[in-house]
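User: what does the whole thing look like in 3D?
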Amino acid sequence: IVLTQSPATLSLSPGERATLSCRASQSVGSSLAWYQQKPGQPPRLLISDASNRATGIPARFSGSGSGTDFSLTISSLEPEDFAIYYCQQRSTGWTFGQGTKVEIK
Amino acid sequence: EVQLLESGGGLVQPGGSLRLSCVASGFAFGNYGMNWVRQAPGKGLEWVSALSSGGERTYHAGPVRGRFTISRDNSKNTLYLQMNSLTAEDTAVYYCAKEGGSGKPYDYWGQGTLVTVSS
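Assistant: Here's the predicted 3D structure for the full assembly of 224 residues, as structure tokens:
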């Protein structure tokens, strides 16, 4: 299963809303997760099962979707949210999307 | 506190071998599936291998199948990755990652260990 993330780069200002997309080449049901990675750090789990926030993740992060189309929304960007975001499916094997970089405009 | 500490990375020549280790603490290691994920310099995440909690089921990504072997010693709370016939394309930071439950995504990651394959 191939995961395609868009856009590759999102240029936004603090306080703005960010919407990231992840599309699967075939249905993964709700077996989709989102991770955040900052430079020099391992990824951090944000969302599991398409829409469940992981422990300690702020409410400004939300996930939605099922089947082949998913999105991660950050309702109001904080300075610490500028990072790379990856989706991952666990329906058939394990694959990651190529990532979306959220950068400061 | 959950901790995953990888070791064993370094510089190796093409065709060589390396064994990575990941020592876990802060949770019941034997109850969770474990994985290896790698990240080439400046690139995205790539799943490498997975191992069930009891070690009876293993899975490897296509590019490493037949060359890499994942294993675990639950008595030592340690995960391993034996890497053989290494090529430059295997150069990456290798992370061990704990599954949050059967079929669940990774709730904890180690800091990673760098493997560089070069002559």
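In plain terms: Residues 29 and 67 of chain A are 4 Å apart (CA to CA). Chain A has a mean pLDDT of 96.
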